[in-house]
Amino acid sequence: MPPKIKNQDTKPKNQDTKIKKNDIFLKGKENNINNELNHQSEEVTNFTSTNTNTKTIEQKYQKKTHLEHILLRPDTYIGPIMPDIESMWVYDDDINKIIKKEIEYVPGLYKIFDEILVNARDHSCNDSTCDTIKVNIDKDTNTISVWNNGKGIDIAEHGEHKMYVPEMIFGEFLTSTNYDDEEKRTTGGRNGYGAKLTNAFSSFFS
Question: Comparing C-alpha atoms, which of 115, 185, 124 is closest to residue 151?
Answer without folding.
Answer: 124
